Amino acid sequence: MSQTPNSTLPAQLTEVIEEFAELEDRQKLELLLEFSRELPELPERYLNSYDQMEEVVECQSPLFLTLEYDDAAGTAAIFFAAPPEAPTTRGFAAILHEGLSGLRFEEILAVPEDLSERLGLSKAITPLRLRGMTAMLGRIKRNIRAHQAGSAPGQPG
Amino acid sequence: MTEEKDFSQYAHPDALVSTDWVAQHQDDPSVVLLESNEDVLLYETGHIPGAQKIDWHTDLNDPVTRDFLGPEQFAAFASAKGITPETTVVFYGDKSNWWAAYALWVFTLFGHEDLRLMDGGRQKWAAEGRELVTEVQAPAAAEYPAPAQRDDSTFRAFREDVLAHFGKPMIDVRSPLEYSGERTHMEGYEQEGALRGGHIPSAASVPWAKAANEDGTFRSRAELEAIYTEQAGLGAAEEVIAYCRIGERSSHTWFVLQHLLGYDNVRNYDGSWTEWGNAVRLPIATGDQPGAVPGA
To answer: Which family does it belong to (chain A) (predicted)?
Structure first.
């Protein structure tokens, strides 16, 4: 059972992982904070309509996500919303956004579950918080599988 | 809430300060403000000017053994935050001061004299439109001599202490579903679960957040007495033990019982459910009733 090497992951995700891997624990937190600041604003169409989005209840702070699909290209765009009082959660969301949004369905589905470990955050952040990121990834994959099966639950449009 | 609350209603009025008090003491060299949040990045997004950060995960715990810092590590940590044994240390944080109370309780174990919570925490400070800054001030140079010991007997309980305590009141501060045993973990904290669900027999259920108002401040003494002294049946007990999952939520309740209501001898069982619910042959009660005292 060998681990999928980072080099076989999508390039935009590998970049994020390598950015974190190079840093000391304290600097990792700073980078996570930077990511949290860069989480893109929700598109107009989702503002004030979180009920159209899926709440990731495994996160310790409120986090909502939704996917939009381009079936011709076979790609998924991912949107997140999290309050500014939850910078860690926002940071995780921004990592996933930067690393996964816009990729092809099969690329996202192939992302390994141990993504949070690969970022090397487990010493700086409690493991239970990192679970939030794993939960986000799990929900993203579940959404894509449901979409592929033709019954995306809770998706707008 | 614009009216200032009268802290003299509480048993130890000095254990609380108001946001006003903190604003007035920002340049007071005898005061050190420590922000302790559940979200370990929140301090960096903005904090009260001059406040130092305390990361409950990396600053207060031994990195290997499940225990807190030893006296020497504590002294080094306190010195690095500009604290001496004479310093008035004021804690505040997110989520109704949940993690701030935890940090305050850990400081208590080392015998630090003057420890206070800012009532309402970060939420109240921000809601009042007060200043938050991202600039981190260098702490004053300070030398904290290592305390002779960490006192693990006065305010901290181990599982042997809990077994010896049966027959006296206990408070379980977790959520109702954790208490009843339907859930072995708190929502969102799956990894910190336990093999068995339920509660320590005879412990009353009072979820920790009942002690807080919507704005993050503590409830009035009369309200707290109704909740703990009457409904939870603490009465005039001399000894009380509080526990939760890992001892952080119960630090909040410990503060309420020890400092706001003035119970003489309140101990926090920090092993809590992640120890009890995983241990072999310890008694457990399930359902929404406290259950009988074992062996009674």
So the answer is: Belongs to the SufE family.
Do the domain assignments include residue A154?
no
Do residues B156 and B67 touch, judged by C-beta distance below 8 A?
no
A124 contacts in chain B (CB < 8 Å): 40, 58
Judged by CB atoms closer than 8 Å, whether chains meet at A125 and B45 is answered as no
Instruction: Give how many domains chain A has, as a whole number.
Output: 1
pTM, two decimals, is 0.86
Q: Confirm whether B282 is domain-assigned.
A: no
In this structure, is residue B260 part of a structural domain?
A: yes
Domain span holding position B50: 13-128
In a domain, A5, yes or no: no
* CA distance readout (Å), A20 to A30, A110, A152, B171: 10, 21, 33, 42
Strands B52-54 and B88-92, sheet pairing: unpaired
Distance CA B140, CA A140 (A): 47
- CA B48 to CA B232: how far, in whole Å? 36
pLDDT, tens digit (0-9, with 9 covering 90-100), for B82-103 = 999 999 999 999 989 999 999 9
Please tell me which residue, A152 or B107, carries the higher pLDDT value.
Answer: B107
Nearest to A133 by CA among A90, A85, A78: A90
B38/A87 Cβ within 8 A? no
User: How many domains is chain B built from?
Assistant: 2
Same domain, B113 and B179: no
Same domain as B188, residue B261: yes
Residues 6+ apart with CB under 8 A from A78: A65, A66, A67, A96, A97, A100, A101, A140
Q: Are residues B160 and B210 located together in one domain of the fold?
A: yes
Give how far A132 is from chain B: nearest CA, Å.
Answer: 7
Annotated catalytic residue, options B200, B244, B246, B285? B244
Residue A7 lies in a domain: no
pLDDT reported for residue A123: 76
Rounded to whole angstroms, the Cα distance separating A157 from B122 reads 39
Domain annotation covers residue A24: yes
What is the CB-side half-sphere exposure of residue B90 using CA atoms within 13 A?
A: 25
Strand partners, B205: B172
- The 3-state DSSP class for residue B22 equals helix
Please give the ipTM for the structure prediction: 0.73
Q: What is the pLDDT of residue A157?
A: 39
Q: pLDDT tens digits for A74-119?
A: 999 999 998 888 899 899 999 999 999 999 999 999 999 888 888 8
Asked if B188 lies within 8 A of A132 by C-beta distance, the reply is: yes
In tens, the pLDDT along A20-54 reads 989 988 899 899 999 999 999 888 888 776 777 87
